[in-house]
Fold this sequence. Notes:
Elements: H1 2-9, H2 19-26, H3 32-56, E1 62-64, H4 67-71, H5 73-77, H6 80-86, H7 92-96, E2 100-102, H8 108-123
Parallel strand pairs: 1-2
Helix pairs in contact: 1-3, 2-3, 3-6
Amino acid sequence: RIHDSIRALDGRVIASCTPEHVVEQGLPCPAPPCVETLEVFCRLLGRFAGDAALTLGARGGVYLASGICHALRPMLERGGFRAAFDDKATLPDYVASIPTRLVLVEHPALLGAAAALGADAIDG
Length: 124
């Protein structure tokens, strides 16, 4: 939807486009509408994550663990995500001190479940 909106604002014909296509075109060979789409997505994600961290008091950090975040690692590392995360009118120093991390392992929920199961088996 972000991609379609950017293309419509540019007056371009909107063709059906999958998220995978946007990522493929926006990362290795930068197609301007796709790059802009990914930059907007990363800023929106950063704003949301920063709001959630501020609301929930996430002092230990915010961990991004999804396939799309893993695929967008280069874009997330460029700085738009973190700049949007930190851009808070209230308590900017507080939010800036909260670390953000990208989880790179596959299936982190299953690893956590297995660890919890193992801990229960040991404790039980």
